[in-house]
Amino acid sequence: MSQVWGVFGSFSTFSRLTSAANDDWVDRMSHIYSSVVLVLFAIVVTTGQLVGDPIHCWCPAQFTGAYVAYTKWICWISNTYYIPMSDTIPVNINEREDRQLTYYQWVPLILLFQALLFKAPNLLWRILHGTSGVNLDKLCELAEKTQYGSPDDRKKTIEHIAYFMDRWLDSNRIYHCNFVVKTRQKFAKICCCFCGKREGTYLSGLYLTIKVLYLVNIIGQFFMLNSFLSTDFGIYGFQVMQHFNEYGAFKESPLFPRVTLCDFSIRQMTNLQRFTVQCVLPINLFNEKIFIFLWFWFVFVAVLASANMISWLYYMIYRRNNAAYVKKYLKLSATPLINNDKKQYRNFADNYLRNDGVFVLRVIGKNSTDLVLTDLVKQLWKIFKEKPTS
């Protein structure tokens, strides 16, 4: 419970909101940059609605000032509908209602909700990854700080990180084997998401699940906007590009019309008068450009999230990647690998570090430098070699 309150209490500053560097830059494209873009757009649209006049209506000549003000606000809150100038206005009221634009009053709220959805996987990661027993935030922070300290301080910090990781790895190790444990270990080798801490797959499996959530979120954004805008938002960008190629400029989209129609009734004693007025929606100038940008941004983030998830899935499932990964940094550290060591570095990767240990090294490497990671792997190798069971 304290971890949950710690996460939500961290919203007090923007630096806390962006979270510690315990993921990779593709994740931050979603939970930081996408969220910030959506919040900024929500502020722009809200400012346009509150500060300026979001709608102007051309009223009949007999309307006084009070009638004009009433017309403007009743048309703003009760939805307008779009009929092209070349088309005849339908006589049937139901046909007009079917063409109503129901989104423009709610754009700021939907943008803020989208920002929350982009942030949600990161919030879940920050709440759950601490239950693995390792403070990944602190490890990444210490590793980053070693780049700016003195050689002695750097060496001590690397040793402290390695010592802490060794204690963490030992605390999550299985010391009693039976049929159930062996079965779980076999499943862990097949699927890193299946088992937990004792199998050394909890942290890596959780991170892979978060990766899936990032991808599900960005794909779900298109379906949500399809429903919100009552259109096929998935092809909206292609329609914009097609119009741009045909006309050499952005053509007004029927999805975001600037000139619309509004029906309303005024009750006068027993008489009910119905009026149809023509209105201008200046706010749709912003909405159109915002959603054009969001379409291209979402496609870009979706491609990155897909490629990134596939690469992490390959790293975690294909076990030889772990051995190759640590071997690379052992070679960079000039650690001699004799014939006997060739089996030991696989034992080092697969049985000592395991998936979670190698995952922590990958995250540290993505948020510091190869030099820091080389020294850390070398220190962990030294600890491993000194163990009597190695």
Automatic annotation (TrEMBL):
InterPro entries: Innexin. The keyword Ion transport applies. It is found in: Cell membrane. Keywords: Cell membrane, Ion channel, Ion transport, Membrane, Transmembrane, Transmembrane helix, Transport. It comes from the Eukaryota. It is a multi-pass membrane protein. The chain crosses the membrane at residues 30-51, 206-224, 290-315. PROSITE patterns: PANNEXIN. GO terms for biological process: monoatomic ion transmembrane transport. Coiled coil: none annotated. One of its GO terms (cellular component) is gap junction. Structural component of the gap junctions. Belongs to the pannexin family. This is Innexin. It comes from Octopus sinensis. The gene is LOC115223363.
